[in-house]
From TrEMBL:
Annotated family: Belongs to the cytochrome P450 family.
This protein's name: Cytochrome P450
Region (Disordered), start-end ranges: 386-407
Top-level taxon of origin: Bacteria
GO MF term set: oxidoreductase activity
Record keywords, A-Z: Heme, Iron, Metal-binding, Monooxygenase, Oxidoreductase
Tagged with keyword Oxidoreductase: yes
EC number: 1.14.-.-
Length: 407
């Protein structure tokens, strides 16, 4: 039986970067109640989470009876549109084989100079504008939006449209019909880009001929929404962590990216699965047809996998985290996200005096969203930079030996 708690659970206001206390005080394999009254199994330990995500007897197919839907919005949308994230082999294997060559570590590393240009331009604009400013609006959101638009061939001028659709899809909207309509509108927009041949150079155009236009549009929606919202959330929330750990923020000897991915695990609704056959996880038999929620945030705070897991340590070798998932559904865009995060965090460290403009307890967090983050991140910086003219890149405002924050 369940503990009576409904998942997802509220995080503690005094520990906004940590998993909800209700996740850490329960048995590692236990029942939990969802929004619709269903009671799937909640899996919280690192080894068990990896076992679930790698097990071929576990399915991501949302049409399977017993699948633990995130909310009414996702259930309604998933009934109308099936993406790579809801496919099992061999369908999943076939589509991933088409996309995987476009997201290799080598190809994403080749994008790094362009990502750096975008970062420098956005920070030039930020530093030339009002001080303090909202880092979400000025930097964290436009950076991945620009990158994914260029990668797909979607006009960035249409960002307000697809960002509004994304907000509808990733938030717990009380009206599922509105989310379905927004999703279908975005699909129609993307399909029109493909069929009318108005898509810019990029992946949408490249896939023409390999897949029908409607399937390209569905893939495009997944990549467009997930490709900017997740990274924007990580940039903003990760920066909030760094600014509350100023000594580590100023230490340029460590790349904090992997530790931030481990420490935060922003997929608030976690990995959803359903058992296709009886299996045993953590000593508990899970029957065919029973839902499973694999909790990556607690897996990444498991002391058996990460000593002193609640301590943020930018020097920690944390790459074995499961923030991007594990197994055949390991996030396809992980190499791109890593490039964007590494460039973003490195550049932010070069801004003298960068700091939160409000106390941490005054930040508002997105608890009713698929991807946990801050709604706004007010920041300030050394006042002498307010007169720097636009176009003078942040990378040119430091000496060759100074890559740290100076105060």
């Amino acid at each position: 039986m369940s503990s009576g708690e409904t998942f997802p659970m509220a995080r503690a206001a005094e520990c906004p970067f940590a998993p909800a206390p209700g996740l850490t005080r329960r048995a590692p394999v236990s029942r939990v109640r969802l929004w619709d009254g269903s009671e799937p199994w909640l899996i919280t330990r690192y080894a068990d989470v990896r076992a679930v995500l790698a097990d071929p007897r576990v399915s991501v197919d949302v049409a399977q009876p017993g699948f633990p839907h995130t909310n009414a919005v996702s259930k309604a949308r998933d009934a109308r549109m099936k993406t790579l994230m809801q496919m099992d082999p061999p369908e999943h294997t076939a589509q991933r084989r088409i996309l995987a060559p476009e997201f290799t570590v080598r190809k994403m590393a080749a994008l790094r100079p362009r990502v750096q240009e975008i970062v420098d331009d956005l920070l030039d604009r930020l530093l030339a504008g009002p001080n303090p400013a909202d880092l979400v609006e000025a930097f964290a959101l436009p950076l991945p939006s620009l990158v994914i638009c260029e990668l797909l061939g979607v006009p960035y001028a249409d960002r307000d449209f697809f960002q509004n659709v994304a907000r509808t899809l990733v938030m717990d909207d009380p009206d599922p019909a509105r989310a379905v309509a927004a999703s279908e509108e975005l699909n129609a927009y993307l399909e029109d880009l493909v069929t009318a041949k108005t898509a810019g150079p990029g992946l949408l155009r490249k896939l023409t001929g390999a897949l029908p236009p409607h399937e390209i549009a569905v893939l495009g929606q997944l990549l467009l929404v997930a490709g900017h919202d997740t990274t924007a959330a990580m940039i903003a929330l990760g920066t909030a962590v760094l600014l509350t750990h100023p000594e580590q923020f100023r230490d340029s000897s460590a790349d904090p990216t992997e530790e931030l991915l481990r420490y935060l695990s922003i997929t608030h609704t976690e990995a959803r699965r359903v058992a296709l056959a009886d299996l045993e996880i953590g000593g508990q038999v899970i029957r065919a047809g029973e839902g499973i929620v694999a909790v990556k945030s607690t897996a990444n705070r498991d002391p058996l996998a990460f000593p002193e897991p609640d301590r943020f340590d930018a020097l920690r070798p944390a790459r074995h985290h499961v923030a991007f998932g594990y197994g055949r559904h390991l996030c396809l865009g992980a190499p791109l996200a890593r490039v964007e995060l590494k460039v973003a965090y490195s550049a932010l460290r070069r801004i003298p005096g960068l700091a939160l403009a409000v106390p941490l307890d005054r930040l508002e967090f997105r608890e009713n969203a698929i991807f946990y983050s801050v709604r706004e991140l007010p920041v300030t910086w050394a006042s002498t930079l307010t007169t720097v003219p636009p176009g003078s890149s942040t990378k040119n405002r430091r000496t060759p030996h100074d890559s740290s924050v100076s105060g």
